[in-house]
Amino acid sequence: MKANQHFKVLFLVLFIFFNNVSFAQTKVVKPKRAYDVAAFLYPAYVSDDPRLRPFWPDGNGEWETVLNMQQRFPGHYWYRKPLWGPVNEADPSVMSMEINQAVKHGVNVFIFDWYWYDGRPFMETTLDNGFLKADNSNQMKFYLMWANHDVVNTWDTRLNKYNENNVIWTGKINRAEFEKICKRNIEKYFKLPQYYKIDGKPVFMIYDMPQLIDGLGGVDQAADALKWFKEETKKAGFPGLELQLTMWSINMNHSGFDGSKTKNPENSFVKKLGFTSATHYQFCHFANVNDDYLNILEGVKKEWTRIDTTFDFVYYPHISVGWDNSPRTGKSAVVRNNTPENFEKGLRMAKAYADAHPKQVPLITINSWNEWTETSYLQPDNVFGYGYLNAIKKVFVDEKP
């Protein structure tokens, strides 16, 4: 073998050796974790839903409450304006724009508040006509939170000033109505590719447990109905149902449940009903929201620790933007200092919680996409612009692992 051939062979051997050493010593970079950032969406900002007219006769849904705030309460401190205008979210072109903005800023799931009153669905047009008909709806996932509370005069600003709280529609339903609702949702929504699932199981969240239990006739009857719901979901071809509880003090116990024989009645109550996960809907459900946002976040940390040590189910961390219900009522507890910068601190808390629980899906819920009348929204306004959306983008999109 000629000298130059020996040189070539030696060079090739050395090249392979040193590259193998290099590969062995190279630090493996873990891929960036894909978080599911889910924002609750309140479907009342529509212009083509006739069932909303009794509450908002102008025909643009609860935008009416937002837009006539100063007219009803002259000189009131609350004066917010949507930068996108009072859009019709049941318009697929509008929803297409909102989906683009959501995904761009890191929100990849909408949790639709879903209602059923007087034997039929209510406020379903935003989902059916807006989201599902948008040309880019495949870019996001969605799931349902059944908002099964009573409807009182709160929505109707012409009447709620009298504080009568008359029940217009009850959230209670009997077993036959429950089965009708569940079968309908399985067929109409669960089977859609956009429906959010965990380990193949459709996620379904329930807001008000006392209403459900009372309507079905008691804790045992409610547990049996929810068990049936899970079995029906399996019959439809899914591995199961991810039944999600709205974490809230009124949902943690019930007069019909005897917890005297167990060390932890709250946990036993939830397990008996068959819930496998939970999240919050709003800070106001467990915190004093008439406070500084940073103080509220300290209480949130303590609540998460309590949940971790008390309950067996999976908890997905929740962050609210704020709270001020005065557009409906003229007066309200008010979260103070909830700037986008402080909201970002809450998001980092939620991210850290998700990272500290690597065995569960990194799902984080936010209140909300568009709760203008509760002043807890991500959509851009005349006060902070795109500040809240940019905070999500900074934490979950822009930053490297």
Describe, in plain words, how this protein is organized in 3D:
The chain has one domain: TIM Barrel, CATH 3.20.20. α6 packs parallel to α8, α7 packs across α8 and α12 runs parallel beside α13. 38% of the residues lie in helices and 12% in strands. Strands 1, 2, 3, 4, 5, 6, 7, 8, 9, 10 and 11 form an eleven-stranded mixed sheet that branches. It is built from 13 helices and eleven strands. It has 401 residues and is α/β, with parallel strands linked by helices. α10 links the parallel β8 and β9. It starts with a helix and ends with a helix. It holds the Pfam family Glyco_tran_WbsX. Keywords: Signal. This is Glycoside hydrolase family 99-like domain-containing protein. InterPro entries: WbsX (IPR032719).
Short description:
With 401 residues, the chain is of the alpha/beta class. 38% of the residues lie in helices and 12% in strands.
Tally of strands? 11
How many structural domains are formed by the residues? 1
User: What summary fits the major beta sheet?
Assistant: 11 strands, mixed
What general form does the structure show? globular
Number of helices: 13
**Could you name the CATH class?**
Alpha Beta
Kindly report how far apart the N and C termini lie.
52 Å
Look at the helices and sheets and give the structural class: alpha/beta
Q: Averaged pLDDT, please?
A: 90
Signal peptide: 1-24
Protein name: Glycoside hydrolase family 99-like domain-containing protein
Keywords: Signal
InterPro entries: WbsX
